[in-house]
Amino acid sequence: MQVKNQLDVMLQKKIDAVERVAKAAEKANKLYGRYKPSDELQLEDLEYYNAKKLVSDVDIEDLDNETQEAVKRTIHYLPLSHDKVEFNDNLVNFTVSTIHVPTNIYDKSSRILNGVKWSNDLTEQFRKNAENDPTLTWQYFGSADGFFRIYPGIKWPRDPNKVDMFDCRIRNWYIQAATSPKNVVILLDTSGSMKGLRLKIAQSTVEKILDTLSNDDYFNVLKFSANVSYVDPCFNRTLMHASVDNRKRMQKQIKKVGAEQMADFKKALIEAFELFRSVEQHLKRTLCNKVIMLITDGAPENYEGTFDYYNWPNKTTRVFTYLIGKEVQDNRQVQWMACANKGDHTHISTRADVQENVQQYIKVLSRPMVQEKFRNMILTAVYLDYPTEHASMVEVPEATFSPFTDLLSTGKKNAGLGLVMSVAMPVFDRREPLSAEGKKDALHDSPVENLLGVAGTDISIYELMQHIPMYKLGVNGYAFAITNNGYIIFHPDFRPMFTKESPVKLDFAAELYAKPNYNSVDLAEEELAMDALKADDFPKDTPVKFEQAAELHTKPNYNSVDLTEVELAVDVLKVEELRNVMLDPQSGGIQMNVTFHYDTMANVHYLNDEEMFIAPWVFCRKEDTGTMYQLVKEELVRLVATGQFRHSKECK
């Protein structure tokens, strides 16, 4: 309970900091008022710290003094330092915040310049938050228009050989905070008219839609021409969890789809509505946020009768339509479908238009939350922060210890913060409704229905683990934590990185790569099941304690010598029970059988190391005299070498 309370306090500080940023953003936007068109913007409005164009002292050290001084007088120069341990010695600037604009958005467009201008006031709030809580790491605001403001200011980590694909609006923290959990059915037109480039654009559209889903969502993809079928036949008439595994699996299946015959839209729409009805009957409850996404190059009619039968008058299912093809002109029918069913219509002409247009549906789904001014505070699953993800991760055992990246087996500084979680919440447009004249301005949406963006901060997993009292767990005890979806936050057997085979053998280092699904490792994959028939061969039940809210769980008697060699095995039903009560969440304890295996001689060699010292753990106390008995190092080595798990020494 002590650990739970400490984590509650720590997390609440992060939540309070993010909420202050969100309120500061709403206030700054309201005071700024109407967005200025291009001809009203001043020279000072055109200059800002563009993180992708910045240079620091490291970049200009080879230039002559006169040139260096000239560069330092420009907006592109940003002095950076690495004197704060919370940032793992990354080069940052604590006086400013910097801006990232996605590659597919013009960084001098009116919307970007106006947004950057009013959001500049957030820097002061970022600084105040850092003063109130020195453990804060990255603080940021992701705009619905695409720009990303981050504090402290950084020079954006880039690979010169790759295109910068970062867009804050498709990061999990943004998507989860901007919308509520949703159930999505995607209808992909695979009729003959979709052959060639149109099909490629349509496939890319489906892939990008899947990228915008989070672990709280459910989905399925149907293809239709003369008949309707499920792209992945393993998930007929059901909705699958939008886990990383399932989304990647579906993205692979989409690439295999071909185009032929005529399209029967009525069959496709009926199957989508019946799918929702079937799932609701199975769950015995009504699904929230039901969405149908229709991807096609045109429809012959609007199928009003189908919508009238399945969706009207309550319109519980929103319909979004994507018209594919540059030369397609008639969009009346598909546009009507979207507008008549509380959705939105988008025309995608080329593959370059896909990402920007796909993301528009998020604004529409966020409207109910915006209208109710509901703060959807979220906590994401574990992931590598962007600087770590794009750093050259090399395993160097002799390197200077870094508590952040040491969790990744690197011990490397200046490589981001390693594994993090994000706390985030939406930011709403609280400006006054516009006049009729103002609404004609292309720069404006209706403020009462507008999502400005998402504010957030990152929490290092290392910081979470600092609250675990390891001295109370014992030499072989450990703690672990999971998310509300059962995914590992931290666990001694959680290894997110792997070493790729290389033709060049290096004795001093090995290049590391993140495993494909490192951020969606389920508890059941770490706590492996034991053969129930062998249960009597193992030590007695070991208690597992779990605590509510923070979802932190401790197991005091983990029988192992070297955790890198250990595979924990427990009763299958007990694992399921443990997982369920953790997800509920509940407080209490569970008894379960525990076993272990390890390399005996490797551990003997480990114990015999001259620099290895064994803590004087007491193994028994004589009842009549209170005398304490201990195992010395030589006795422990002998027991490990002979494979004995219980010693014969008695209290006399």
Provide a descriptive summary of the structure in words:
Strands 1, 2, 3, 11, 12, 14 and 15 form a 7-stranded antiparallel β-sheet that branches. Strands 4, 5, 6, 7, 8, 9 and 10 form a 7-stranded mixed β-sheet that branches. α11 links the parallel β9 and β10 (344-348). This protein folds into 4 domains: 2-158 and 376-463, no CATH class; 181-372, Rossmann fold (3-Layer(aba) Sandwich); 468-592, no CATH class; 600-641, no CATH class. Helix content is 31%, strand content 19%. It is globular. It contains 21 helices and 26 strands. The model is unreliable at 395-401, 502-509, 529-570 and 595-599 (pLDDT under 50). It is of the alpha+beta class. It starts with a helix and ends in an 11-residue tail after the last helix.
Key descriptive features of the protein:
652 residues; alpha+beta; seven-stranded mixed β-sheet; Rossmann fold; single chain; 4 domains; 21 helices; globular; seven-stranded antiparallel β-sheet
Extract low-pLDDT stretches.
395-401, 502-509, 529-570, 595-599
The geometry reads as globular
Rg over CA atoms: 28 Å
Number of helices: 21
The termini sit apart by 38 Å
Tally of individual domains: 4
Number of strands: 26
Summarize model confidence as the mean pLDDT. 79
Helix/sheet category: alpha+beta
How helical, in percent, are the residues? Answer: 25-40%
Multimerization status? single chain
What share of the residues does DSSP label as strand, in percent? 15-25%
For the report, how would you describe the main beta sheet? 7 strands, antiparallel
